[in-house]
């Protein structure tokens, strides 16, 4: 009966996983179609963007599954379930591990081969115009550079030393080191782990840039809202009249046949470009005033404020938890040579306190972890959407509704793939013990003295601190800390993340309301691009 109940639970879990996968694919299709340009859309770039975005979301969902499986092996009283013997638990761990390897291999394939090939193929198509064979050859030539980088990372990973320097000898520390050695030797995929860790460092830089800013910009934009379309249209009409009067004054100088000076010609050209932009704004604002979607958004304005306040509270909770976790590592870890890894927590944080409370009511703790992961993903999307895609100080692409170029969508999906790799370490930083062991409890044998008689077999249930002999470690934790030098880089990256979030929060507070057509109309847009947004406004 117990085995049948366990099988039923697992079947239900697989059904829920299938529904979640379907929901992810639908979301990715809607998201990509919402932002891609109608005039420049290509089937191959659209499919690549949807696939890469789906892989990013599925990979991010693997962390809650990993935590759930190690927790599901044990009862609430700290004993293993009947079906969870050594062989079954090992099979479950291997299944999760192979799931990580599969998804991470797909990410390597996307980042180093498929996305670069599609990007360069489309770039060559714009320049060449029609020779498919030439486009494929040129795209492969440029993609070869990415493949060589991947090969170098795999070779380095295959021979990199895994010895973790140890300055503070302890029994628990030695057990963790043995876990790492078993993890590496039994599966022999060290090279893949090194490559993924290298990409995770790049994802850390992307998270510092985009996720930290998105966590501050998204809530405050919801709270402040946008300016009124009617008010903006009135201001825009006044600007048009002012520019037209200025144009008339300049043109009046050449009525008697005299040529304009070079300065006046430059000014005339700038004013004509400015007038074209203002008239495009006028058409957009007129469409927005008649849009049923904008009217609906105005009706739910109070709900947006509530969501904004909730998101800013969550962002502050994350920041405080991350700060306390990093401070704990700075004070109690073995230092740089150990990757700032600590066994247990000495300084608790709000999230670590909240999760054990939620564990009492299934499945509130898993809902919270899933929500945190999705929050990181969506704030990353918001950060990329608000900032655009930059290479140092050069803006490469803008992410705009209905007007995003295929190359920009490919860049967006690649950045999200890299951020997702770093998300697992961010969650570990917020709740280290929960990510390692989930809601597992274990039995502790104590010696009690009753009326002079010592009883040695009394057992009681404990949740924290952990016990490596009686608890199963998540595969996520072993993957994150396989290389101590990457763990050290993540530690310093967390401090940079906190600093960028605080700077972004100050900047977002000082900025005024966004325009209702923020980023939709630019000077370099063509008049044909006005038709692309009519789908959303009518």
From TrEMBL:
<keyword id="KW-0170">Cobalt</keyword>
<comment type="similarity">
    <text>Belongs to the LIMR family. LMBRD1 subfamily.</text>
</comment>
<dbReference type="GO" id="GO:0031419">
    <property type="term" value="F:cobalamin binding"/>
</dbReference>
<keyword id="KW-0472">Membrane</keyword>
<keyword id="KW-0458">Lysosome</keyword>
<keyword id="KW-0175">Coiled coil</keyword>
<dbReference type="InterPro" id="IPR006876">
    <property type="entry name" value="LMBR1-like_membr_prot"/>
</dbReference>
<dbReference type="GO" id="GO:0005765">
    <property type="term" value="C:lysosomal membrane"/>
</dbReference>
<feature type="transmembrane region" description="Helical">
    <location>
        <begin position="189"/>
        <end position="213"/>
    </location>
</feature>
<keyword id="KW-1133">Transmembrane helix</keyword>
<feature type="transmembrane region" description="Helical">
    <location>
        <begin position="366"/>
        <end position="396"/>
    </location>
</feature>
<feature type="transmembrane region" description="Helical">
    <location>
        <begin position="483"/>
        <end position="507"/>
    </location>
</feature>
<feature type="transmembrane region" description="Helical">
    <location>
        <begin position="44"/>
        <end position="65"/>
    </location>
</feature>
<keyword id="KW-0846">Cobalamin</keyword>
<feature type="transmembrane region" description="Helical">
    <location>
        <begin position="305"/>
        <end position="324"/>
    </location>
</feature>
<feature type="coiled-coil region">
    <location>
        <begin position="261"/>
        <end position="288"/>
    </location>
</feature>
<feature type="transmembrane region" description="Helical">
    <location>
        <begin position="98"/>
        <end position="122"/>
    </location>
</feature>
<dbReference type="GO" id="GO:0061462">
    <property type="term" value="P:protein localization to lysosome"/>
</dbReference>
<keyword id="KW-0813">Transport</keyword>
<feature type="transmembrane region" description="Helical">
    <location>
        <begin position="12"/>
        <end position="32"/>
    </location>
</feature>
<feature type="transmembrane region" description="Helical">
    <location>
        <begin position="142"/>
        <end position="162"/>
    </location>
</feature>
<keyword id="KW-0812">Transmembrane</keyword>
<dbReference type="InterPro" id="IPR050854">
    <property type="entry name" value="LMBD1_LysCbl_Transport"/>
</dbReference>
<dbReference type="Pfam" id="PF04791">
    <property type="entry name" value="LMBR1"/>
</dbReference>
<feature type="transmembrane region" description="Helical">
    <location>
        <begin position="408"/>
        <end position="428"/>
    </location>
</feature>
<protein>
    <recommendedName>
        <fullName>Lysosomal cobalamin transport escort protein LMBD1</fullName>
    </recommendedName>
</protein>
């Amino acid at each position: 009966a117990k085995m049948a109940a366990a099988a039923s639970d697992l079947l239900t879990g697989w059904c829920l996983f299938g529904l979640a996968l379907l929901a992810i694919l639908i979301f990715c299709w809607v998201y990509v179609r919402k932002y891609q340009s109608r005039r420049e859309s290509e089937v191959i770039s659209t499919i690549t963007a949807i696939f890469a975005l789906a892989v990013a979301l599925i990979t991010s969902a693997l962390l809650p599954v990993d935590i759930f499986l190690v927790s599901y092996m044990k009862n609430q009283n700290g004993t293993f379930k009947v079906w969870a013997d050594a062989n079954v638990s090992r099979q479950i761990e291997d299944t999760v591990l192979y799931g990580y390897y599969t998804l991470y291999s797909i990410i390597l394939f996307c980042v180093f081969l498929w996305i670069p090939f599609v990007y360069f193929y489309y770039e060559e198509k714009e320049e060449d115009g029609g020779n498919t064979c030439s486009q494929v050859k040129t795209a492969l030539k440029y993609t070869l550079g990415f493949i060589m980088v991947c090969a170098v990372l795999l070779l380095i990973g295959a021979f990199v030393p895994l010895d973790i320097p140890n300055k503070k000898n302890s029994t628990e520390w030695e057990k963790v080191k043995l876990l790492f050695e078993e993890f590496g030797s039994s599966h022999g995929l060290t090279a893949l782990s090194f490559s993924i860790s290298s990409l995770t460092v790049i994802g850390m830089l992307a998270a510092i840039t985009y996720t930290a800013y998105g966590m501050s910009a998204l809530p405050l934009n919801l709270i402040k809202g946008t300016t009124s379309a009617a008010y903006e249209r009135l201001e825009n009409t006044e600007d048009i009249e002012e520019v037209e009067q200025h144009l008339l004054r300049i043109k009046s100088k050449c009525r008697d046949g005299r040529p304009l000076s070079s300065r006046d010609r430059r000014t005339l050209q700038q004013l004509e470009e400015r007038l074209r932009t203002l008239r495009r704004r006028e058409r957009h604002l007129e469409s927005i005033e008649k849009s049923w979607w904008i009217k609906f958004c105005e009706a739910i304005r109070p709900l947006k404020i509530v969501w904004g306040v909730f998101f800013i509270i969550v962002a502050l909770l994350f920041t405080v938890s991350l700060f306390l976790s990093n401070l704990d590592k700075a004070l109690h870890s073995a230092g740089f040579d150990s990757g700032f890894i600590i066994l247990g927590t000495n300084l608790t944080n709000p999230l670590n306190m909240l999760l054990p409370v939620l564990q009492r009511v299934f499945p509130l703790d898993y809902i919270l972890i899933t929500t945190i992961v999705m929050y990181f993903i969506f704030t990353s999307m918001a950060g990329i959407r608000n900032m655009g895609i930059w290479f140092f100080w050069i803006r490469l692409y803008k992410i705009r509704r209905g007007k995003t170029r295929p190359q920009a969508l490919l860049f967006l999906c690649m950045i999200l793939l890299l951020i997702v790799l770093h998300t697992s370490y961010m969650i570990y930083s917020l709740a280290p013990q929960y990510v390692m062991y989930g809601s597992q409890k274990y039995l502790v044998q104590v010696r009690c003295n009753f009326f002079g008689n010592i009883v040695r077999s009394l057992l009681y249930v404990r949740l924290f601190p952990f016990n490596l002999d009686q608890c199963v470690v998540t595969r996520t934790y072993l993957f994150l800390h396989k290389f101590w030098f990457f763990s050290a880089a993540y530690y310093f990256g967390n401090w940079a993340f906190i600093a960028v979030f605080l700077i972004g929060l100050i900047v977002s507070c000082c900025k005024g309301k966004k325009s209702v057509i923020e980023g939709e109309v630019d000077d370099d847009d063509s008049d044909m691009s006005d038709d692309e947004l009519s789908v959303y406004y009518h």
